[in-house]
Amino acid sequence: MDRLADFIGEFAKYLIYLMILVLLFDVISDKAFNQVQNWTVETAQFTLAAFYFLAGPKTLKDDTHVRLDLIYAHLSERGRAIIDMITVWIVMFYLAVMLWGATSSLKYSWMTKQKLPSLWAPSLVPIKVLMVICIVLMILQCISIFFKDVAKAQGKVLA
């Protein structure tokens, strides 16, 4: 799971550059050529959403998410592992609720062929499929983290 998270994270970082290029194209097209594009802002929004979803497993794997370190920072490695073994289940519960909602939303979008109410009107199905996949990947990463924390709590050294 860690290698998959690294690979996905490596891919995801390039989405920011894609988003910048799309928005740059929009500005140049509008200001230099007086041609307004009706797809660029929504493409940038979808790209940012994809980046956000795809970065989730890598963020969990690298432990670079936001944490209140008031107490946590003063704990030993074993103490941190024990706290993480408990709190990862809270994260997984949250992700499970998100997965339930995302799956329901995907099902609705699929059945109704939901599109954004705009001039371009792109389908919402692809971004919702990506959202469901990435939530599942984050749950799998949490399971991986749990087992690593169990090993740390037992004093085992992980490679």
In short:
This protein is 78% helix and 0% strand. It is built from five helices and no strands.
Task: Describe this protein with a few key phrases.
159 residues; mainly alpha; elongated
Description:
This protein is mainly α and 159 residues long. It contains five helices and no strands. Helix 1 packs antiparallel against helix 2, helix 2 runs parallel beside helix 5 and helix 4 packs antiparallel against helix 5. The chain is elongated and about 65 Å long.
Task: Give the overall form.
Answer: elongated
What is the averaged pLDDT score?
92
Beginning-to-end CA distance, first to last residue: 15 Å
What structural category do the secondary elements indicate? Answer: mainly alpha
The total count of strands amounts to 0
Q: Please compute the radius of gyration using only Cα atoms.
A: 20 Å
The profile of the biggest β sheet is: none
Strand % is under 5%
Number of DSSP helices?
5
Enumerate the spans where pLDDT stays under 50 for 5 or more consecutive residues: none
H/E series, N to C? HHHHH
Percent helix among the residues?
over 70%
What is this structure's SSE topology?
Blueprint: H1 2-33, H2 40-62, H3 69-72, H4 77-112, H5 125-153
